[in-house]
Structure formats: structure tokens, C-alpha cells
Amino acid sequence: MTDFLSLPDGGPVTLADASVPGCLVGSSADLVRRDITVADGRIAEGEGTRVDLGGAMVLPSFVDMHTHLDKGHIWDRAPNPDGTFAGALSSVADDRAARWSAADVRRRMEFGLRCAEAHGTRAVRTHLDSQAPQDTITWPVFEDLRAAWAGRVELQGVCLVGCDSVTVDGPFAATADLVARAGGVLGMVAYPVPDLKDRLQAFFALASARGLSADFHVDETLDPDSACLRMIAETVIETGFDAPVVVGHCCSLSTQPEAEWQRTLDLVARAGLHVVSLPMCNLYLQDRHAGRTPRLRGITLVHEMKTRGIPVSFASDNTRDPFYAYGDLDMLEVLRQATRIGHLDHSDADWVDSVLSVPARACGLAAPSLAPGAPADLSIFRARGWTELFARPQSDRVVLREGQPIDRTLPDYSDLDDLMGCPR
């Protein structure tokens, strides 16, 4: 499908009669109509050649703060045998051991970045499987890609290891050193183990010593007894860890008694944690039982968190791998599905910021903006309102970088055909 809008070449351009979210321009209204002038690659005052948008929606560039680029697009060679979380773990472990060379990881990660850019995303944080020796294979690839994509998609990396491998010394300390040298974020998967408190204290000690922020996978289960999020919040408070802490998934909150989740969210707010919800992947994996219709959505308590002032973002998570068979790193799709799954409609008018400024702040990035002086990194959609925006995939959107339309041609899946089934 071709783009629906043509822009003149050269000189300032005024995108006239654009619909923009009120929360992005200091208005309490859901949407407002206004003109946006672009000059010299930035949003500007004044007026240029007018292009009438007729109410078409304009958003600044997206921030996708929880992805797995290194896992992406292995489904064709490593499908999930039964769609379960256990099946995903097994398939990824086998594929990683057999095939994740530097060349393989690089090509699949770059494929994902090409998709994200084409859909209007300007920054991506990716978790990277970092079990030895994979850490020494993947992190140099990440650093090369971060440099190669600078100015197009800003890339951040987080190490991903299980909590039972975290100790103050030993292999994980070496991984933490690698992450620090690469300017990354220290991460781990928190799940119930008898000595989780000790593991968390070791984790935060390693992060503090290296000046690293933290990013957790936590309670990715519907087991109401899984309360790792509460322990993370308690440990942050007890240790005084003052770098940013992100917690992702937090699914078990949705199945806990009210008194339990309220107590946990009070601690999360006090600890200053940032929550990222991954609604598409959680919907795919959680409450899956053969021959039984799922009852639960897996989404965490985003409304209750937001009411307490806890920052909440949404993100893509996995893409065409055993943890999620679908997806294309399209943050509009993420917001559309989050709206449906989490009933964000008939709610606060600023949920769109959960894929814009809120994740940017969590990642320490400049917030996407429509204010004069901000980079003219924009997405323009034919839709004139939220229901029009979410009713269709908006495949004809126009993406601007520094005020200029980019080529939105998506990479073809056949580009990776030679990697499917190849030996390490």
C-alpha cells in the first residue's frame, strides 16, 4: 500500500489541521487540531508551504522499551511445540545452542530494526540472552549495530539471565563487567527461588558498583503465589538503590487477592519502579492449556498502577519466536492491542504517552515531543481519531525523520531464508 500523503521538497512545510493528542500539547482535551511547521529538520514556529492534513493524526516517534531482537524471527526453524511458556524456553535454548553465531544474531537483529524504523520507532531497548558463552557472542554484535544505527534507531541493551545464576562473584560478575563496558543495563529474570532475596542483593550490589541501571523480567506467570515484584521493591527500598529500575510483565498481580496486590503496588510506588507491560506476548502465553479456552488475559494491573502514580509503558516484547509467534515491532499495533486487552479506552486521555514520553524517561532518553525545537521525527496517519486509528493497521502511514519521509519498505521474510535450519 502506498503512502497517502505527499510532501513538497525543500523549504519549511506546515502540516495544517493535524489531529494531535491533547496530552502532548498541554491540553486536557482528548485530541486537538493544530498546525505543525517543520523547518531544517525540526518542529518550528511560523509557517511554510501548507499541506492540508484534513485532521490526519500526527504522533512523535515511538519508544519500544522491551524487545528481544536476538530471539526475533527464529519461528520457522524453532517453533513453539505447544504454545506454552515451557515450550518457548526449550525451543529457544535448543536454537541458541545450535545456531546463534554472531552472523546469525546480527542479521536477525538488523531485520527487526528495519521493521521498527519503518513503523515509526526511534528508540529500542532490547534484552539479550547473556548466558556464557552467548554473552561474548551477542554483546559485540549489539555494540556494532548500535553504532551502525545511530541517528536512525537509538539502541539500548539489557543482559538477560536467570536469577539462580546471579552471585556477587563468578560468571555473572563477568557478565556485569561486559555490560558496563558496553554501556548497557543490568537485567535478570526474577522467579521464586528460596534465596531470591540474596540474589537480588547481589544483583543490586553489582549494579551499584558499576553505575548501572536495572531492568527485570518478573512474575511472568499467573501463579498468585509468585510475589517477586514485591521483593524487588522491598530490596530497592532497603538498599537505597537509586538508579532507574524497570520491571516487566508482573502478570501474577492479576490473580492475587486485593490486599496482596495493593500492598505490592504501594511498595512499587514507594520504590519508584517503572513498569512495562507486554500485553501481546502475555496474552499469547498465559493461561494456555490444551483443549481449554483461556479465561485470563495475563495483563498486569496497569490502571491501578497509574492511579498510584507508577509510570506504566507498553512494549513489543518478542517477535516471531517461540515466546510470541507474531508481531512486527510496530508500536501502533502494541498500543492498539493494549487498548483492547487492557480497556484503556473510556479511561485517561493520555495512555498514548505510554509508548512515547513515559518509556523515553524510563530509558533516560529525550522525550518525543511536538514542541518547537524538537526533532521533526513524526508519524502521520490517515486516521482522524482513535477509533479510526485503531480500526486499521495504518499501513499507509508516513514516517518522517528530521522532516523528511523515509522509505517504509519492510524487509521481506525471505531475506532470512538461508538462516533457517543452518548449522552453527
From TrEMBL:
Domain Amidohydrolase: start-end pairs: 51-102, 196-401
Domain of life: Bacteria
Keyword Transcription in record: no
Keywords attached to this entry: Hydrolase, Metal-binding
GO molecular function: cytosine deaminase activity; isoguanine deaminase activity; metal ion binding
Biological processes, Gene Ontology terms: cytosine catabolic process
Protein name: Cytosine deaminase
